[in-house]
Design goal:
Layout: E1 2-14, E2 24-40, E3 44-49, E4 55-59, H1 71-83, E5 91-97, H2 107-122, H3 129-144, H4 151-158, E6 163-168, E7 174-178, E8 183-189, H5 197-211, H6 228-232, H7 237-262, H8 265-281, H9 288-299, E9 304-308, E10 315-321, H10 325-339, E11 346-350, E12 357-358
Helix pairs in contact: 1-2, 1-3, 2-3, 2-4, 3-4, 5-7, 7-8, 9-10
Length: 360
Amino acid sequence: MSVTFQAPGRANLIGEHTDHTDGLVLPAAIDRGITLRAELGGDRIAVTSDVVEEVVDVAADGSEMPEGGFGRFVAAVAAELDEAGRSPVGLTGTLSSDLPQGAGLSSSAAVEVVIAVALCAAADLALEPMELAALCRRAEHRAVGVPSGIMDQAASILGRADHAVLLDCGTLEHEVVPLPAGHGLLIMDTGVRRQLETSGYAARTEELAAALPVLEGRRPAEVDPEELPGLLAQLEAVPARRLRHVVTENARVRQTVAAFAADDRARIGELFAAGHASLRDDFEVSVPELDTMVELAVDAGATGARMTGAGFGGAAIALVVDDRLQEVTEVVAARYRERHPDREPALYRCVAADGAGRRD
């Protein structure tokens, strides 16, 4: 019998470049993701995809690692589950996706999560949500060697319709947070691909690491922004800017949660704007096209907008009142083409959705 599993992508509302210093993030699972339709059983994992021309066929215990492609993620998840004590029961299925490619919505994490959920079901293995998220994060490290944070996998697993997930990436404490009533999410892909993402990300990580000794063992999330003048005075200019972003961004996450609870739309707009400015000026990961998207969305009536993801291209996100979503989408797309005629934007209207699981 064929069964269906789905893992959503995620959109991070605020809390950018904080996860790799064990900080606070506020993502939401979205109503787009990766779906796996599969027959459970056997001793092999055989998976095809409607997105890429690749056939994955690996041992159910993850002992065979493909050299490239999404098969690396499949095998890595199976290997991590094997180490967690899962019986090596396989599956045969097909992956499909309605996640935009290159828009920073965590398609790789969604693949890891949907494979993990299906393999757990195949072997009748139950894992706690954060245990499963941590396992999928380790699988990503195993597959591609990228020291990513846990936000993407956790959001895909913990998501709840109409809510964001407040996650402390250090303690792994988490709670769901209602989004402002009557709002949807607008993902605005600039059409700028992230050729510089890897080197830029690594450089920012190194620059931030150079600033951390002034915290004397504290996480940036534990630092009050009022302490910053004294701390930054001990640093060179670039590490100082990187630290200022991370400390103030953690504070903005807390303040955004409070603004959501109060339905203070003006404050939400201020916090999103401050977050984008900090990413642009202090962490220096924005590009002109992202700045344009944010400006246009706010001018068109979005409650708040900011770049989302690693930066150096990719997408911005806007929080928009439902009855304005169509208008904002059309206005932003048209004006963006006028400002950047060499770029083709792609805009996607989304809502916050439930986390990964069986869907039939």
